[in-house]
Design goal:
Blueprint (H helix, E strand, L loop, with lengths): L4 E4 L9 H15 L5 H6 L5 H5 L8 H15 L10 H10 L3 E5 L4 H11 L5 E3 L7 H7 L4 E4 L2 H10 L2 E5 L6 H7 L3 E3 L5 H11 L3
Parallel strand pairs: 1-2, 1-4, 2-3, 4-5, 5-6
Length: 206
Amino acid sequence: MPDLVVGFDLDLTLIDTAPGFRQVLRALGDELEVEFPVEEMTRRLGPPLDLLLAPYLAADRIPAAGDRFRALYPDHAITTVPVLPGAHEAIAAVRRLGGRVVVVTGKFAANAQLHIDHTGLDVDVLEGWVWGVGKAEALRRESASVYVGDHVHDVEGALAAGVTSVSVLTGGCTADELVAAGTHVVLESLEDFPDWLSGYVSSRTP
């Protein structure tokens, strides 16, 4: 295993999940006859789906609604979801340095794999359905040294794993929120990541 292993979150870090999320949520609302506040919920993307649904559904309806959301997802949210600017280049930067790429995401793994296949993201390992500090186990197992995310809970996972937390401002969290959570680095987007990575590796080369 190369010394350099970089972990990435998926939603709003590598891909712009918002268009697909809106479509699936509208389809789910139509089936359940519930008028979800789609735009508000999309702005809060990041936490697990069950938490996003909790204000709008009775607790006993949430598990089945989550299952139905995941079943609807492939037909509504794969082809409409693009990679974010710099995503392919960020992964290529890891490759140029002989590193491995690990995606650790809260998304249902089968749907995450559909995104990776559709967008052609060059990934070695995918770990799905893990959130917050739960991401630390996968990062430690893969010997990651960096984890890149967009949410304060991505920072929590990186810190719990003892790796460098890099945050991008392409999700719903502000720079102040990410810094308060303890991130080590804040970048505007993944377009800034290759230069940062080059400096990071150089600083650690004897």
